[in-house]
Write a structure and sequence with these properties.
- Helix 1 crosses helix 2.
- The chain has a single domain, classed as K homology (KH) domain (GMP Synthetase, Chain A, domain 3).
- It is α+β, with helices and mostly antiparallel strands and 137 residues long.
- Strand 3 and strand 4 form a beta hairpin.
- It has a 5-stranded mixed β-sheet, with helices on one face.
- The chain is globular.
- The longest helix has 23 residues.
Length: 137
């Protein structure tokens, strides 16, 4: 008989981009940001690394499109696998806010950011990405 683990989710963690070189971080609530990433657990650190990598990748993708990013927040959560070995089975990235005014350019930036993010490319679990452009930043 296979061992089944209890369902568990991790995060969410947030990386806040405001156009400066200092990225803000938050755990659970983006209104409680700090200049330091979440280190509550190793998984939170992993989620935060993914969030920050997406921020940096979005900056690079925007520069490739000769556009300036609006302030936005990256939200990352994880879902634990229900079988052994113990691992994160899926990570969900949500971009909160409108990256740029043009939605087609924003979509290109989002897809390019995911494709060039070293952290997401290294993970062997499923990593999804979506946007919530109406989220006010």
């Amino acid at each position: 008989m296979a061992i089944r683990l209890k369902p568990k989710s991790f995060g969410p963690v947030f990386a806040l981009y405001n156009g400066s070189k200092i990225t803000g971080y938050a755990f659970g609530d983006p209104s409680n940001s700090t200049p330091y990433p979440s280190t509550q657990t190793p998984v939170d650190t992993l989620l935060t690394s993914l969030a920050y990598c997406i921020v940096l990748s979005a900056e690079l993708a925007a520069s490739e499109n000769n556009t300036k990013l609006n302030p936005f927040i990256i939200k990352v959560s994880g879902i634990k696998a229900l079988d052994l070995p113990s691992r994160v089975e899926k990570m969900n990235i949500t971009i909160l806010g409108q990256l740029v005014e043009d939605s087609s350019v924003a979509e290109r930036i989002m897809q390019r950011a995911k494709s060039i993010c070293t952290v997401s490319n290294t993970l062997s679990c499923e990593v999804s990405i979506a946007t919530e452009p109406d989220f006010y930043v």
